[in-house]
């Protein structure tokens, strides 16, 4: 019962579709723009909505401004409206009318201007009007240079084509799951893929057939037609029909006839909507460049991030190793904002997760050029190019990750003084890049080399990564084609050493590939390594004095790292956001890990006194608590002279001798004085005693007349007192005679 009903509904739909397709074909044919024409500037009434066409009437669509005014299927229009796309961008207005009527298009427009819809819509409409069904196999191939960009295009395709019945698939990543893919690839109508993976299917998948292909699209066409993809693109072209529609899009389009001949374009419409524009980059983008010595780049990057904690930032570095190293190190130092990293060595699912996460959060994404093209991430505030872009095109694509689709954005590029030729190229009139030079003050830089060195001590595997980051950076410069900009021979051995030190490395890694260079001799490098090995395990950063003085030259208004409060003037020149960024995010831990935590644990040590210390080797300390070796305090701090000066030492010895003699003299005088005092005391004592005796004898003589019984009593007593002096016995002679007489009397009585 239900089956006939369903069949009936399907038939009804088919009939409706057929009617719509017939109408669309007529409309497209009747209103198609003349070859080589551009749409006129949008009229003031644009956006008011389409006037309903009268029956049988086919309104002009080559000059329209709304998607609804285009000869598109109702399903596509409905999907576009649901996704919020109503008004067309410039490239869409210019490219869609030509593409819809089946012409080949070579489209160029600034980054973030909506090129994706300019090719996705014609793809869907073409297959719809050709009444393509799943059984018809591959009808369209879209080539993208990277997995992520292919995924992004596939998502747009899904949104715009969600009401249609086509099957579409994204073919990217590694070989994992390829067997399942081989079984399904022939039933997909639209393939979004990287060139390599498509060639793989041509080579390995039985019955893989693209003989019915209607359309070939190359996004980032200049890159896909470049050397890197040459053999793959040639292989693909050889496998697909010559009669097809071809669309090529990029922000930096190839004009090479050779390239175009390879993809056999037929009378292509060259649509470059911003050719006459004042700038090659979005008008809403503010662009800055700073001259930063190689060894100061990390300090500068750290200082920038610390001062823009509320900004979503993409940081471009030139190699995977550098991305990994800077990401890991900064993560350990904790700037106070979430950090992410992205490079080609990650699995595709991980890349997807990172992009999705970065899309939603305010964070810093360290990346290689993997994300420099096409990636459409919401609300990126800053693009920072730590390493010089390899070309102007590369610069345009990198900065194009911000200021997308009329949104504001800013970019900052660090250039080594040796790479200033790139600045000249960018500033050349034909480049059309309005870039401003900013000279940061030296005090704006937070020096983090020592902190990095401490992290490396704690995490030896990071030291290995640091070495590799150092080597791969130099290698990437060495391998660049543009020698006017990239020339390692302009760097001195000292600069390499300072750069290594800025990465926290204790010694400069060996750089074999530049040992043959003229002005960086092998001897220089070896000498430098030896010097560093001898001097200390913590390398010192050598700052080029010329560059350092340049850094201090900036005036206050150039301030990117130390933004000021907005002033009327700042607002006038559009620098307000640079000068006064948003308040830092409130993070629980915004401070970098202390060096102590990163290095060895700090324990309070007990003060030990070395009793076995040889005499004269006592350690002295300066005002900041640094140990001074004996006699070092007399050394003069003149870098060009010997640290310890002999004449100063002998002068100091003479002074010490004079001081000692003076002390000796004083000591002797002191000693003499104390001796004299002791003698005096003794003398005084004797004198006092003598005086007392004299007083006593005077008393005796003065009372001689009254003595009577008292004298006898005193005499008796004094006699037995042996302590009395001799003089007294003489004075007591009478008493003795009396006693002798008494004794004789008693004796005679006894005998009788
Ligand atoms: N007509 C439109 N209306 C509103 N938003 C649009 C429109 N067209 C495109 N956009 C939005 O503009 C953003 C940039 O579009 P898209 O990624 O296609 O730019 P692009 O020109 O391909 O940039 P790139 O050169 O960097 O690859 C996307 O977020 C997209 O959704």
Backbone shape: elongated
CATH homologous superfamily caption of one domain:
P-loop containing nucleotide triphosphate hydrolases
Under the CATH scheme, which class of one domain? Alpha Beta
Number of helices: 27
Mean pLDDT: 77
Share of helical residues: 40-55%
Number of strands: 16
Largest sheet: 7 strands, parallel
Please name the CATH topology of one domain.
Rossmann fold
What small molecules does the structure contain?
adenosine-5'-triphosphate
Q: Compute the separation of the termini in Å.
A: 188 Å
State which percent range the strand residues make up: 5-15%
InterPro entries: DEAD/DEAH_box_helicase_dom, Helicase_ATP-bd, Helicase_C-like, P-loop_NTPase, RNA_helicase_DEAD_Q_motif, SPB4-like_CTE
Keywords: ATP-binding, Helicase, Hydrolase, Nucleotide-binding, RNA-binding
EC number: 3.6.4.13
GO molecular function: ATP binding; hydrolase activity; RNA binding; RNA helicase activity
Structure description:
This protein has 752 residues and is α/β, with parallel strands linked by helices. Among the domains are: 2-37 and 58-272, P-loop containing nucleotide triphosphate hydrolases (Rossmann fold, 3-Layer(aba) Sandwich); 285-449, Rossmann fold (3-Layer(aba) Sandwich), CATH 3.40.50.300; 510-583, no CATH class. It is built from 27 helices and 16 strands. A seven-stranded parallel sheet has the order 3-4-2-5-6-1-7, with helices on both faces. Strands 10-11-9-12-13-8-14 form a seven-stranded parallel sheet, with helices on both faces. α4 (115-129) crosses α5 (147-160), α7 (195-204) crosses α9 (230-239) and α12 (320-333) packs antiparallel against α17 (460-479). The longest helix is centred in the last third of the chain and has 57 residues, at 646-702. The structure holds adenosine-5'-triphosphate. Adenosine-5'-triphosphate binds next to α4.
């Amino acid at each position: 019962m239900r089956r006939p009903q369903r069949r009936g509904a399907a038939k009804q739909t088919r009939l409706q579709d057929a009617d719509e397709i017939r109408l669309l074909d007529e409309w497209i044919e009747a209103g198609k723009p003349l070859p080589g024409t551009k749409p006129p500037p949008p009229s003031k009434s644009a956006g008011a909505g389409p006037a309903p066409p009268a029956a049988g009437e086919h309104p002009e669509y080559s000059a329209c401004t709304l998607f609804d005014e285009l000869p598109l299927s109702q399903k596509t229009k409905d999907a576009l409206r649901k996704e919020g796309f109503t008004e067309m961008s410039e490239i869409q207005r210019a490219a869609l009318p030509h593409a819809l009527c089946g012409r080949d298009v070579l489209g160029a427009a600034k980054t973030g201007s909506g090129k994706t819809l300019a090719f996705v819509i014609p793809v869907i409409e073409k297959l719809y009007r050709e009444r393509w069904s799943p059984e018809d196999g591959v009808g369209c191939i879209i080539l993208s240079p990277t997995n992520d960009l292919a995924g992004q295009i596939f998502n747009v395709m899904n949104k715009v084509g969600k009401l249609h019945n086509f099957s579409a698939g994204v073919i990217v990543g590694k070989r994992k799951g390829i067997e399942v893919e081989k079984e399904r690839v022939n039933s997909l109508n639209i393939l979004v893929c990287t060139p390599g993976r498509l060639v793989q299917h041509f080579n390995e998948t039985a019955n893989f057939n693209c003989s019915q292909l209607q359309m070939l699209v190359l996004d980032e066409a200049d890159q896909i037609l470049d050397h890197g993809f040459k053999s793959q693109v040639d292989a693909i072209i050889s496998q697909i029909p010559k009669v097809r529609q071809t669309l090529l899009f990029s922000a930096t389009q190839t004009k090479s006839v050779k390239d175009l001949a390879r993809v056999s374009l037929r009378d292509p419409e060259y649509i470059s909507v911003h050719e006459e524009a004042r700038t090659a980059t979005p008008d809403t983008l503010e662009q800055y460049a700073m001259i930063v010595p190689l060894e100061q780049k990390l300090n500068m990057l750290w200082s920038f991030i610390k001062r823009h904690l509320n900004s979503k930032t993409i940081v471009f570095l030139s190699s995977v190793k550098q991305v990994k190293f800077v990401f890991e190190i900064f993560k350990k130092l904790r700037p106070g904002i979430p950090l992410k990293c992205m490079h080609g060595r990650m699995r595709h699912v991980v890349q997807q997760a990172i992009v999705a996460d970065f899309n939603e959060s305010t964070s810093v994404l360290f990346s290689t050029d993997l994300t420099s093209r096409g990636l459409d991430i919401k609300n990126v505030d800053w693009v920072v190019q730590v390493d010089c872009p390899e070309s102007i095109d590369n610069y345009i694509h990198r900065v194009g990750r911000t200021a997308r689709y009329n949104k504001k954005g800013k970019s900052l590029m660090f250039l080594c003084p040796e790479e200033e030729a790139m600045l000249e190229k960018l500033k050349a009139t034909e480049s059309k890049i309005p870039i401003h030079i900013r000279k940061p003050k030296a005090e704006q830089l937070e020096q983090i080399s020592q902190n990095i060195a401490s992290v490396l001590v704690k995490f030896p595997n990071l030291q290995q990564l640091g070495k590799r980051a150092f080597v791969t950076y130099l290698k990437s410069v060495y391998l660049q084609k543009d020698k006017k900009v990239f020339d390692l021979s302009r760097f001195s051995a000292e600069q390499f050493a300072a750069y290594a030190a800025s990465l926290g490395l204790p010694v400069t890694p060996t750089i074999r590939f530049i040992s043959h260079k003229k002005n960086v001799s092998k001897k220089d490098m070896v000498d430098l390594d030896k010097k560093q090995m001898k001097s200390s395990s913590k390398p010192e950063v050598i700052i080029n004095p010329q560059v350092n003085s340049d850094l201090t030259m900036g005036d206050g208004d150039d301030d990117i790292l130390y933004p000021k409060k907005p002033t009327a003037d700042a607002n006038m020149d559009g620098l307000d956001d640079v000068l006064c960024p948003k308040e830092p995010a409130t993070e629980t831990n915004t401070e970098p890990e202390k060096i102590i935590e990163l290095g060895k644990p700090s324990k309070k040590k007990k003060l030990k006194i070395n009793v076995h210390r040889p005499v004269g080797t006592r350690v002295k300390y300066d005002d900041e608590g640094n140990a001074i070796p004996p006699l070092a305090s007399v050394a003069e701090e003149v870098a060009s002279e010997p640290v310890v000066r002999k004449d100063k030492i002998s002068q100091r010895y003479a002074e010490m001798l004079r001081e000692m003699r003076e002390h000796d003299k004083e000591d002797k005088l002191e000693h003499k004085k104390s001796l004299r005092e002791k003698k005096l005391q003794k003398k005084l004592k004797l004198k006092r005693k003598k005086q007392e005796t004299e007083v006593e004898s005077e008393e005796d003589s003065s009372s001689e007349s009254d003595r009577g019984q008292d004298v006898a009593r005193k005499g008796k007593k004094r006699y037995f007192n042996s302590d009395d002096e001799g003089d007294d016995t003489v004075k007591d002679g009478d008493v003795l005679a009396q006693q002798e007489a008494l004794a004789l009397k008693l004796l005679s009585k006894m005998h009788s």
